[in-house]
Amino acid sequence: QVQLVESGGGLVQAGGSLRLSCAASGRTFSSYAMGWFRRAPGKEREFVAAINRSGTSVYYADSVKGRFTISGDNAKNTVYLQMNSLKPDDTAVYYCAARTGVVATTEWGRYDYWGQGTQVTVSS
Predict the structure, then answer these.
(1) What is the pLDDT of residues 10-27, one digit of tens each?
(2) What is the pLDDT of residue 32?
(3) Could you tell me which residues come within 8 angstroms of residue 5 by beta carbon, excluding any fewer than 6 positions away?
(4) How many Cα neighbours within 13 Å face the side chain of 46?
(5) Which has the closest alpha carbon to 123: 10, 2, 12, 6?
(6) Structure confidence at residue 94 (pLDDT)
(7) pLDDT computed for residue 29 by the predictor
(8) How far apart are CA 116 and CA 7, in angstroms?
(9) Number of CB atoms found within 10 A of residue 10's CB
(10) Distance, C-alpha 111 to centroid of its chain
(11) Closest Cα to residue 106, out of 47, 43, 41, 25?
(12) Do residues 82 and 17 lie in contact, with contact meaning Cβ atoms separated by under 8 Å?
């Protein structure tokens, strides 16, 4: 069993920054990839960012590219999402996800484990 716990959400003014963390515990995988998704009220879940285990491949949604950075610390089994230049449109619940495959993907259906989410609210 694998558990994912997100933290770091909160309320921030437009233009501000937050760093989200996702800590994994339980079964150790020989290879895995991690991703971040978000869901705003009344909207579909959307891809935000993804990274493979080695950190050699990263992917970003066009809406966050240049503002968000995904990174990982394998020793701590933790993945981070640094969010800069935040906009009100970034307001959502942010979820981290993990999959046993080595290739990072933007498709939510290919992820095996999900956290409970952390709320990010950006005011004007």
Answers:
(1) 999 999 999 999 998 887
(2) 79
(3) 22, 23, 25, 115, 116
(4) 16
(5) 12
(6) 98
(7) 56
(8) 10
(9) 13
(10) 12
(11) 47
(12) yes
